[in-house]
Every structure is written in structure tokens, then in C-alpha cells.
Amino acid sequence: MRNYDDDWTEDQRALYDECYDLGEAWAGDPETDTDQLQDVINLAEADDDELADVDLNYPPLVDAVAEATGEQVTSVTADRDDPAFRGFVDGVRQGVEEDVFGL
After folding, report:
1. Is the model's pLDDT at 10 over the cut of 90?
2. Residue 2 phi/psi, 5° resolution?
3. How many CB atoms sit inside 10 A of residue 48's CB?
4. Secondary structure class of 46 (helix, strand, coil)
5. Is residue 100 within 8 Å of residue 93, measured between CB atoms?
6. For residue 78, what are the contacts with CB-CB under 8 A and spacing of at least 6?
7. For the chain, how many helices (H) and strands (E)?
């Protein structure tokens, strides 16, 4: 399910949507490594204190944000207020079969 902030602009919602779709497609790809999926699920389930706005250079996340923004990206901040980060992890969570990781 898509999860926007009420105060996001149309551009932020579009970025969220693009990253959500990329995350969902990546999670649904049979070629995607289950350990990588679990890493992203762990990010999606982490609370804000655990994330602590760390810069992540996790390749699937960085690639999705780079594709969505059309800019070269080397890291993404683990911040639920960032539409790119939240979109990707929400999309992955949606794209993973629920029985796979006990969601």
C-alpha cells in the first residue's frame, strides 16, 4: 500500500511512486537474491532510531533512486521522510510474497 506524507508535493509523490514501483518489481523478480530481500525488509521494519539517517550504498536501493531521479546517486539516506527511500522499501515489502519472510 502506498504511504504518502500529507505535506508532500506532487514531485515528491511521483518520486515515491517511481521508487515504489522499482522496489516492487525488484522484489518480485525471481533472480533477486533472498538475502538482499531480507536486508531491505529489515530496513522497512526498522524503527527510526535504528535507521538514524544513515547513508546507505545498498546497490538495489541506490540503482532505483538513480533511475527514478535520472541523477547519479552513490548513497541514499535511510530516512522515512525521504520519498525515494520510503518508496523503495514500501514497494519491496509489497512485492515480497508475505509467506516468504513471515510478514
Report:
1. yes
2. -75, 145
3. 11
4. coil
5. no
6. 43, 46, 51, 52, 53, 54, 55, 56, 85
7. 5, 2
Distance CA 61, CA 56 (A): 8
Q: Whose grid coordinates read 520510503?
A: 86
Compute the distance between CA of residue 75 and CA of residue 50 in angstroms, rounded to an integer.
Answer: 18
| Strands (DSSP E) found in the chain | 55-56, 76-77
Asked if residue 42 lies in contact with residue 21, where contact means CB atoms within 8 angstroms, the answer is no
pLDDT tens-digit map of 47-78: 877 787 788 888 899 999 999 999 999 999 88
Cell of 75: 548513497
Q: 41 near 33, Cβ under 8 Å?
A: no
Of residues 47, 73, 49, the one with CA closest to residue 59: 73
pTM of the model: 0.88
Per cent of the chain over pLDDT 70 is 93
Reduce the DSSP state of residue 76 to 3 states and report it.
strand
Beta bridge mates, 77? 55
